[in-house]
Write a structure and sequence with these properties.
alpha/beta, Rossmann fold, 8-stranded mixed β-sheet, 11 helices, about 15% strand, globular
Length: about 300
């Protein structure tokens, strides 16, 4: 297990902040602050400081970067970065710690929910987040995610489903579609010998410990907006001490799918969304108050690394 204590300083000075940058803690989305000068250009978006300003290492067209940005926006809007301890396991998802300026713990493959459970036990005041891929969550870590959900652990899980093992060479995952070709199913997934895709979010939603379960997509701007609302709701569930919250993100893997980025987006909108319907599956706290972190969890005193 590897602990990544965030020591990156926030950007300083006009050059780092950019033109008309919003002050720290201000809105980061489309409703960003207006300049006092009525003739100045209107600021419609500013990069959240928690989103590290660096070039991406992900393959062209990969959806992970979009999810990182949404997480950065939501964490900032809820005033959570200083209180967050995130867990990243093995797989493409592990590199989230390079792009989100929060404290991270790196877990063995599939064990992020178990590590998050340990963090929740010893740091009850922290905001605890897992960021996992489909091979990690739905295969190698099936036991861990099922039992964390059954216990109603007060954590938020972000589950990026691109239907393939991306980092290890494009092998078939539990979420791979019927007929989809991968390096371990070169003729396509055949149900009689390889089984059917697992809709694990629907499976978990049946457990009483799951307060919120939803599935969104990065396929277009409209769906990305809905996905952000899902992620924010999942975070608010934890802040209200509501129990386990999960957001599945349908994402594309152009390289693993053998497609161009544009082709992969069309595939995501079509066959993938048909196999994995979008929307909120369960929200058991729909009428519960949406407490803020400051009201429910006082700011912890973080020791210096």
């Amino acid at each position: 297990m590897t602990v990544h204590r965030d020591t990156r300083a926030a950007p300083a000075g006009p050059a780092a902040a950019g033109p008309a940058a919003a002050p720290a803690g201000s809105t980061t989305g489309p409703a960003a602050a207006h300049s006092a000068d009525p003739h100045a250009p209107r600021l419609v978006y500013a990069r959240p400081e928690v989103l590290v300003d660096r070039s991406t290492h992900y393959c062209p067209g990969c959806g992970h970067g979009v999810v990182h940005r949404l997480l950065a926006e939501v964490l900032t809007e809820l005033d959570l970065p200083a209180h967050t301890i995130a867990v990243a396991p093995v797989g493409c998802a592990v590199f989230a710690y390079d792009y989100l300026s929060v404290d991270f713990v790196e877990a063995p493959h599939g064990r992020a929910p178990a590590v998050a459970t340990g963090i929740r036990r010893v740091r009850p005041e922290a905001f605890v987040l897992t960021y996992q891929g489909d091979g990690d969550l739905a295969a190698i870590g099936t036991a861990e995610i099922v039992h964390a959900a059954a216990r109603g652990e007060n954590i938020t899980a972000i589950f990026v489903n691109n239907g393939i093992y991306g980092m290890t060479g494009g092998q078939m995952a539990p979420t791979t579609l019927v007929g989809q070709k991968t390096t371990s199913s070169p003729a396509g997934r055949e149900p009689s010998s390889m089984g059917y895709p697992i809709r694990i979010t629907e499976m978990l939603a049946q457990l009483e410990g799951v307060a919120y379960a939803a599935r969104g997509s990065v396929a277009d701007a409209g769906q990305i907006g809905k996905l952000k609302a899902m992620i924010k709701r999942a975070c608010q569930i934890q802040l209200a001490h509501g129990g386990f919250a999960l957001v599945e993100v349908l994402s594309n893997c152009p390289v693993g799918w053998g497609m161009t980025p544009r082709e992969s987006i069309e595939h995501l909108k079509g066959p993938v969304a048909q196999a994995y319907p979008l929307g909120v599956i369960v929200d058991r706290l729909a009428s519960a108050p949406k407490d803020t972190f400051a009201e429910t969890c006082p700011a912890p005193a973080h020791p210096e690394a």
